[in-house]
Write a structure and sequence with these properties.
By secondary structure, this protein is an all-alpha fold. It has one domain. Helices cover 82% and strands 0% of the residues. It is built from seven helices and no strands. The longest helix is centred in the N-terminal third of the chain and has 47 residues. The protein is elongated and about 75 Å long.
Length: 238
Amino acid sequence: MSASVGPHEGEPHEESSRSRLNWLRAGVLGANDGIVSTAGIVMGVAGATTDRSAITIAGVAGLVAGAMSMAAGEYVSVSTQRDSELALLDQERRELRDEPQDELAELAGLYVGKGLDEELAVEVARQLTAYDALGAHAEAELGIDPDEITSAWNAALASMVSFTLGALLPLLTILLVGQGARVGVTVGAVAVALALTGWASARLGYGPAGRAVVRNVAGGLFAMGVTYLIGSLLGTHL
Protein backbone atom coordinates (compact mmCIF):
# COMPACT_ATOMS: atom_id res chain seq x y z
CA MET A 1 0.00 0.00 0.00
CA SER A 2 1.62 3.26 -1.16
CA ALA A 3 -0.53 5.68 0.87
CA SER A 4 -0.77 5.73 4.64
CA VAL A 5 -4.00 4.67 6.27
CA GLY A 6 -6.13 7.58 7.46
CA PRO A 7 -8.18 10.56 6.26
CA HIS A 8 -7.04 13.02 3.62
CA GLU A 9 -5.89 16.38 4.88
CA GLY A 10 -8.46 19.16 4.53
CA GLU A 11 -11.47 16.82 4.56
CA PRO A 12 -14.03 16.88 7.40
CA HIS A 13 -13.65 13.76 9.57
CA GLU A 14 -13.94 15.14 13.11
CA GLU A 15 -17.73 14.81 13.09
CA SER A 16 -20.28 13.42 10.72
CA SER A 17 -21.27 15.66 7.82
CA ARG A 18 -24.91 15.07 8.72
CA SER A 19 -24.45 16.51 12.22
CA ARG A 20 -22.47 19.42 10.83
CA LEU A 21 -25.11 20.21 8.24
CA ASN A 22 -27.84 20.14 10.89
CA TRP A 23 -26.06 22.82 12.90
CA LEU A 24 -25.23 24.74 9.74
CA ARG A 25 -28.87 24.67 8.69
CA ALA A 26 -30.10 25.91 12.06
CA GLY A 27 -27.47 28.63 12.38
CA VAL A 28 -27.31 30.00 8.85
CA LEU A 29 -31.04 29.81 8.15
CA GLY A 30 -31.74 31.45 11.50
CA ALA A 31 -29.35 34.32 10.80
CA ASN A 32 -30.59 34.77 7.25
CA ASP A 33 -34.22 34.77 8.34
CA GLY A 34 -33.41 37.26 11.08
CA ILE A 35 -31.65 39.61 8.68
CA VAL A 36 -34.14 39.37 5.82
CA SER A 37 -37.41 39.30 7.76
CA THR A 38 -36.48 42.11 10.15
CA ALA A 39 -35.01 44.18 7.33
CA GLY A 40 -38.22 43.66 5.40
CA ILE A 41 -40.32 44.80 8.37
CA VAL A 42 -38.34 47.93 9.17
CA MET A 43 -37.97 48.86 5.51
CA GLY A 44 -41.70 48.46 4.98
CA VAL A 45 -42.48 50.71 7.93
CA ALA A 46 -39.77 53.18 6.88
CA GLY A 47 -41.43 53.35 3.47
CA ALA A 48 -44.70 54.30 5.11
CA THR A 49 -43.49 56.71 7.81
CA THR A 50 -40.41 58.44 9.15
CA ASP A 51 -41.57 58.01 12.75
CA ARG A 52 -38.68 56.33 14.61
CA SER A 53 -41.03 55.01 17.31
CA ALA A 54 -43.16 53.15 14.78
CA ILE A 55 -40.09 51.63 13.16
CA THR A 56 -38.72 50.61 16.57
CA ILE A 57 -41.95 48.95 17.70
CA ALA A 58 -42.37 47.07 14.44
CA GLY A 59 -38.73 45.97 14.36
CA VAL A 60 -38.61 44.78 17.97
CA ALA A 61 -41.94 42.98 17.61
CA GLY A 62 -40.71 41.27 14.45
CA LEU A 63 -37.43 40.27 16.12
CA VAL A 64 -39.12 38.75 19.18
CA ALA A 65 -41.87 37.01 17.22
CA GLY A 66 -39.42 35.68 14.65
CA ALA A 67 -36.98 34.39 17.25
CA MET A 68 -39.75 32.59 19.15
CA SER A 69 -41.17 31.16 15.93
CA MET A 70 -37.78 29.90 14.78
CA ALA A 71 -37.09 28.28 18.15
CA ALA A 72 -40.51 26.63 18.35
CA GLY A 73 -40.41 25.41 14.76
CA GLU A 74 -36.91 24.00 15.14
CA TYR A 75 -37.81 22.32 18.43
CA VAL A 76 -40.88 20.62 16.95
CA SER A 77 -39.05 19.57 13.79
CA VAL A 78 -35.99 18.16 15.54
CA SER A 79 -38.09 16.52 18.28
CA THR A 80 -40.07 14.65 15.64
CA GLN A 81 -36.87 13.56 13.90
CA ARG A 82 -35.29 12.57 17.22
CA ASP A 83 -38.32 10.52 18.30
CA SER A 84 -38.29 8.68 14.98
CA GLU A 85 -34.56 7.95 15.20
CA LEU A 86 -34.78 6.70 18.77
CA ALA A 87 -37.70 4.44 17.88
CA LEU A 88 -35.74 2.97 14.98
CA LEU A 89 -32.70 2.41 17.20
CA ASP A 90 -34.86 0.65 19.80
CA GLN A 91 -36.22 -1.61 17.08
CA GLU A 92 -32.70 -2.35 15.87
CA ARG A 93 -31.60 -3.27 19.41
CA ARG A 94 -34.48 -5.73 19.71
CA GLU A 95 -33.65 -7.31 16.37
CA LEU A 96 -29.98 -7.64 17.29
CA ARG A 97 -30.97 -9.29 20.56
CA ASP A 98 -33.64 -11.61 19.16
CA GLU A 99 -32.39 -12.32 15.62
CA PRO A 100 -28.60 -11.85 15.57
CA GLN A 101 -27.95 -14.20 12.66
CA ASP A 102 -30.64 -12.63 10.48
CA GLU A 103 -29.25 -9.19 11.27
CA LEU A 104 -25.73 -10.33 10.38
CA ALA A 105 -26.97 -11.69 7.06
CA GLU A 106 -28.86 -8.47 6.40
CA LEU A 107 -25.77 -6.35 7.09
CA ALA A 108 -23.62 -8.54 4.84
CA GLY A 109 -26.24 -8.21 2.12
CA LEU A 110 -26.05 -4.44 2.33
CA TYR A 111 -22.29 -4.56 1.81
CA VAL A 112 -22.73 -6.93 -1.13
CA GLY A 113 -25.07 -4.33 -2.59
CA LYS A 114 -22.30 -1.75 -2.23
CA GLY A 115 -19.89 -3.85 -4.29
CA LEU A 116 -18.14 -6.28 -1.93
CA ASP A 117 -18.04 -9.95 -2.80
CA GLU A 118 -20.10 -12.14 -0.50
CA GLU A 119 -17.22 -13.68 1.45
CA LEU A 120 -15.63 -10.32 2.19
CA ALA A 121 -19.01 -8.77 2.98
CA VAL A 122 -19.73 -11.46 5.58
CA GLU A 123 -16.31 -10.98 7.17
CA VAL A 124 -16.72 -7.19 7.29
CA ALA A 125 -20.20 -7.58 8.79
CA ARG A 126 -18.87 -9.95 11.45
CA GLN A 127 -16.00 -7.67 12.44
CA LEU A 128 -18.13 -4.54 12.58
CA THR A 129 -20.84 -6.33 14.55
CA ALA A 130 -18.25 -7.57 17.04
CA TYR A 131 -16.84 -4.06 17.41
CA ASP A 132 -20.11 -2.09 17.62
CA ALA A 133 -23.18 -4.02 16.54
CA LEU A 134 -25.73 -1.23 16.98
CA GLY A 135 -23.51 1.42 15.39
CA ALA A 136 -22.71 -0.73 12.37
CA HIS A 137 -26.30 -1.80 11.73
CA ALA A 138 -27.78 1.64 12.42
CA GLU A 139 -25.40 3.34 10.03
CA ALA A 140 -25.73 0.80 7.21
CA GLU A 141 -29.46 0.14 7.50
CA LEU A 142 -30.86 3.42 8.82
CA GLY A 143 -28.24 6.09 8.12
CA ILE A 144 -28.21 6.99 11.82
CA ASP A 145 -25.25 7.47 14.15
CA PRO A 146 -26.45 6.47 17.66
CA ASP A 147 -23.85 8.77 19.24
CA GLU A 148 -25.01 11.86 17.37
CA ILE A 149 -28.75 12.12 17.92
CA THR A 150 -29.59 15.81 17.56
CA SER A 151 -30.79 17.65 20.66
CA ALA A 152 -34.06 19.50 20.07
CA TRP A 153 -33.26 22.07 22.77
CA ASN A 154 -29.83 22.78 21.32
CA ALA A 155 -31.27 23.19 17.84
CA ALA A 156 -34.02 25.50 19.11
CA LEU A 157 -31.53 27.63 21.05
CA ALA A 158 -29.18 27.84 18.06
CA SER A 159 -32.02 29.00 15.81
CA MET A 160 -33.29 31.57 18.30
CA VAL A 161 -29.83 33.05 18.98
CA SER A 162 -28.82 33.15 15.32
CA PHE A 163 -32.13 34.75 14.32
CA THR A 164 -31.77 37.39 17.03
CA LEU A 165 -28.20 38.24 16.06
CA GLY A 166 -29.18 38.50 12.42
CA ALA A 167 -32.24 40.64 13.19
CA LEU A 168 -30.28 43.11 15.31
CA LEU A 169 -28.24 44.30 12.33
CA PRO A 170 -31.01 45.90 10.23
CA LEU A 171 -32.91 47.03 13.34
CA LEU A 172 -29.98 48.86 14.91
CA THR A 173 -28.79 50.23 11.58
CA ILE A 174 -32.08 51.84 10.62
CA LEU A 175 -32.55 53.25 14.14
CA LEU A 176 -29.06 54.67 14.62
CA VAL A 177 -28.57 56.23 11.17
CA GLY A 178 -30.09 59.62 10.42
CA GLN A 179 -33.38 59.89 8.57
CA GLY A 180 -31.91 60.98 5.26
CA ALA A 181 -29.48 58.07 4.95
CA ARG A 182 -31.18 55.33 6.95
CA VAL A 183 -32.68 53.44 4.01
CA GLY A 184 -29.53 53.41 1.91
CA VAL A 185 -27.24 52.50 4.79
CA THR A 186 -29.59 49.72 5.93
CA VAL A 187 -29.72 48.26 2.42
CA GLY A 188 -25.92 48.32 2.23
CA ALA A 189 -25.44 46.79 5.68
CA VAL A 190 -27.94 44.02 4.96
CA ALA A 191 -26.32 43.25 1.61
CA VAL A 192 -22.90 42.93 3.26
CA ALA A 193 -24.29 40.76 6.06
CA LEU A 194 -26.06 38.44 3.62
CA ALA A 195 -22.90 38.18 1.55
CA LEU A 196 -20.99 37.13 4.66
CA THR A 197 -23.57 34.54 5.73
CA GLY A 198 -23.71 33.18 2.20
CA TRP A 199 -19.93 32.90 2.10
CA ALA A 200 -19.85 31.28 5.55
CA SER A 201 -22.50 28.72 4.62
CA ALA A 202 -20.60 27.80 1.48
CA ARG A 203 -17.29 27.46 3.32
CA LEU A 204 -18.73 25.36 6.14
CA GLY A 205 -20.72 23.23 3.72
CA TYR A 206 -17.84 22.87 1.21
CA GLY A 207 -19.93 24.37 -1.60
CA PRO A 208 -19.24 27.14 -4.16
CA ALA A 209 -19.16 30.50 -2.38
CA GLY A 210 -20.09 32.69 -5.34
CA ARG A 211 -23.46 31.09 -5.93
CA ALA A 212 -24.38 31.16 -2.23
CA VAL A 213 -23.47 34.84 -1.92
CA VAL A 214 -25.46 35.83 -5.01
CA ARG A 215 -28.53 33.88 -3.84
CA ASN A 216 -28.45 35.42 -0.37
CA VAL A 217 -27.89 39.00 -1.45
CA ALA A 218 -30.38 38.90 -4.35
CA GLY A 219 -33.11 37.35 -2.22
CA GLY A 220 -32.60 39.83 0.59
CA LEU A 221 -32.57 42.88 -1.67
CA PHE A 222 -35.69 41.67 -3.46
CA ALA A 223 -37.53 41.20 -0.15
CA MET A 224 -36.53 44.66 1.09
CA GLY A 225 -37.49 46.26 -2.20
CA VAL A 226 -40.94 44.68 -2.20
CA THR A 227 -41.72 45.59 1.43
CA TYR A 228 -40.43 49.15 1.01
CA LEU A 229 -42.62 49.61 -2.06
CA ILE A 230 -45.67 48.23 -0.26
CA GLY A 231 -44.97 50.46 2.74
CA SER A 232 -44.63 53.51 0.50
CA LEU A 233 -47.90 52.77 -1.27
CA LEU A 234 -49.80 52.15 1.96
CA GLY A 235 -48.26 55.20 3.62
CA THR A 236 -49.47 57.37 0.76
CA HIS A 237 -53.06 56.08 0.80
CA LEU A 238 -53.69 55.51 4.53
